[in-house]
Amino acid sequence: MSAIKVVNSDFDTLLRRTTKLVNHTVRQLLADQKIIDSNLKKTIKYTLAAPGKRIRSVLALWCCEIVSGQINHNAEIAAAVIEMVHTYSLVHDDLPAMDNDDFRRGQPTCHNVFGEATAILTGDSLLTLAFEVLAKKIDEPTIAIELVSQLAEAAGPAGMIAGQIADLKAEKTAVSRKILQYIHTNKTAKMFRCAAAMGAICGGANARQLNSLCEYGLKIGLGFQIADDILDVCASSEQLGKTAGKDRKAGKATYPAVLGLQKSRQLAKNLADEAVAVLKLFGHKADTLRQLALALLQRSK
Ligand code: IPE
Ligand code: IPE
Ligand code: MG
Ligand code: MG
Ligand code: MG
Prior knowledge:
Layout lengths: L8 H24 L5 H11 L6 H14 L4 H21 L9 E2 L2 E2 L1 H5 L1 H22 L3 H15 L4 H10 L7 H26 L4 H28 L2 H4 L5 H5 L4 H5 L1 H17 L9 H11 L4
Antiparallel strand pairs: 1-2
Helix pairs in contact: 1-3, 1-4, 3-4, 3-9, 4-6, 4-9, 6-7, 7-9, 8-9, 9-10, 10-14, 14-15
The structure holds 3-methylbut-3-enyl trihydrogen diphosphate (2 copies) and magnesium ion (3 copies).
């Protein structure tokens, strides 16, 4: 299977359509949910309904489709739940005790609008809600348990939290490439791998399919965080919907800081190529995922 070099317009249309499906499910789940505090209702909507790219969720839906030929109910739930956990991570990541950011998804951060305590509790709500939804809305108990296990492991102390702790600890220190990879893999790539795994599980993947999609997810996830670091240097705040140029000021351990821009770009490209290579067993069915790897490499926001 030769590498795809151009992101075609059909892919853009499909991405938009799949993003809409994620937004629709998220809205429906929120409308169904018992959130008795009217303030929390507002803050959850403020953060979750803001225009995120929904990439992890889309990845889950496409991984279900690649193994089963269609997007099913369980995958739609899994995709929405991944977005809840991801949004929680952003709300907490922006807090003054962490990255202290003022803008997110083109609007003032949750703590800037509603206060720090409410932002912490909004994040807590999104995280717990995600697991409640998995327990209640997935059709098959054995699938629900597998999804809970994947998500808890990726978002928890053996995944995103470990990465976030290491990210904060590394501020204003000289880090090795090994530590940098540890940070980015844990804080970001494992959630991408998890999204791929959750979608594949919903589609009834066999072990070989699951392993390949997990590997693909981990590679594009690491590439995604490298691109995030590059965009922090090269893009504008308007483009990103968050404040650009903050990583250098905060002394963050980033790929451009450690390797320089050119090597960082090359590394992201290598990861996209490697991600495409592990899709071989799916043949043309994986063309959308091949396009996704390229689109994430070329993204401008
Ligand atoms: C931002 O993720 C945090 C990172 C792991 C780089 P996204 O760039 O996916 O943010 P949204 O969801 O589109 O706002
Ligand atoms: C965020 O990484 C990773 C998680 C939220 C888990 P960053 O701190 O680089 O993300 P941005 O740049 O604030 O979106
Ligand atoms: Mg951070
Ligand atoms: Mg941040
Ligand atoms: Mg960043």
